[in-house]
Amino acid sequence: MRIPLNKLTLNPEVAARTKVDEEYLKLLMKSLREDGQLHPITVRPLPDGRYEIIDGLHRVEAAKRLGWKDIEANVISVDDLEAKFLALKANLVRRNLEPVQEGELIYRIMVKHKLTEKQVAEKLGVSVEWVSKRLALVLKVHEEVRKLVAEGKLSLGHAVIISKIKDPNKQVKFAKLIIRNGWNVKQAEEALIEFVNDTIFTIGYEGRSFEEFLNLLKKYEIKVVLDVRHEVEFVRQEFSGELLKRQLPVYGIKYVQLKELGVPKLIREPYIEGKFSFDCFKQWYLWWVGKNREIWEPKVREAKRIGYIALLCAERYPKPRGTQRHYCHRDILADYLIRQGFFEKRVDII
Questions:
Q1: Which residues have C-beta within 8 Å of that of residue 171, sequence separation ≥ 6?
Q2: 80-94 and 117-124 are packed helices; what angle lies between their axes, rounded to 10 degrees?
Q3: Which of 72, 158, 225, 230 could be 154's S-S partner, Cβ–Cβ 3.0 to 4.6 Å?
Q4: 7-30 per-position pLDDT tens digit
Q5: Which residue(s) pair with 202 in the sheet?
Q6: How far is CA 197 from its chain centroid?
Q7: What confidence tens digit (pLDDT) does each residue in 46-64 have?
Q8: Quick check: 270 and 292 in contact, CB under 8 A?
Q9: Cα(90)–Cα(93) distance, integer angstroms
Q10: Residues paired with 223 in a beta bridge
């Protein structure tokens, strides 16, 4: 039936769209002018004699601008919830909405009518995963990330990966990394593990039993121990390289020996005895780390993909403390890794 345009009204709570796309409207006006109305709008009757638009906002606006007095419409009697789903379905079929807009509508419907993701999926005829992905854009990502998705610079799959990052600022940072590196969704997912692992831990075993040492690793959720001692056999038996290699994996902790980041006895002993200064020792050690970078860097990056990393050395403390009068080289190494961008912060387990 044809309905006068002045009897039509729009309810923002029901309509999938409330804003007019001017570019699309120009195309639609041209089509209506040349071909007439090809598809009727969908409305529902109101008690006061007016009709509420469920689907067809742009066609109504185009008709008004063309000076039409009425428009062809399908009139259906549905409740609020059904009207919202019909409006959303119509736009999904025509792909008129951005994923972010779809997520906002779905979220509004779920909150208003206390529906689950499964119920929404069944109503729309889509998968629960489809619903979850769109909700992730609304609930868990920074506005700038949503904008990048709307502009087509990031895919919906990318946004779902980004939503796993809790810090909004880091979400934006990772989004820009995805764009800069041209990562697909799988590559972004792999890179995310390394990206969120932004803290380097350090730990020493002097004065500790193996049980205490292990409990500290568990407390801080350490997944990889990087042994940065140069000599690992002539030490307390429970902290020998061979024993750690056998014992730590039993508790879900990977052990990696990196003697290339250790300090040879020839350098270590005179430094501890005070034969040369810490500044001299530090200068030598940074040279040593740089010289061996091709060896240790791939191992550090691989470890980052597993989980939190702890640099292991003998000294109880990374800096002079108590009866320990010297710095441990892991103190220099931790700061170096941060300056080089491998990590953002450090935690010394003492």
A1: 141, 142, 145, 162, 163, 165
A2: 60
A3: 158
A4: 898 776 666 555 666 876 887 788
A5: 311, 348
A6: 12
A7: 889 898 888 778 888 889 8
A8: no
A9: 5
A10: none
Q: Which helix (H) or strand (E) holds 202?
A: strand 199-204
Contact 189, 161 (CB under 8 A): yes
Q: What is the CATH number of domain 2-97?
A: 3.90.1530.10
The single-letter code of the amino acid at 280 is C
Distances (CA, A) of 325 to 273, 276, 277: 10, 13, 12
- Which of 326, 325, 315 shows the shortest CA–CA distance to 350? 315
> What residues does each domain of the chain span?
2-97, 140-196, 199-349
CA distance 246 to 35: 78
pLDDT in tens, 211-265: 999 999 999 999 999 999 998 766 788 899 999 999 999 999 999 999 999 999 9
**Tokens coding 144:** 């700038």
> CB–CB of 224/309 below 8 Å?
yes
The rounded distance, in Å, linking the Cα atoms of 70 and 2 is: 6
Distance of CA 208 to the CA centre of its chain: 38
> Which residues 6+ apart lie within 8 Å of 237 measured at CB?
243
SS3 25: helix
CB of 295 closer than 8 Å to CB of 171: no
H/E stretch holding 226: strand 222-227
Residue type, 236: R
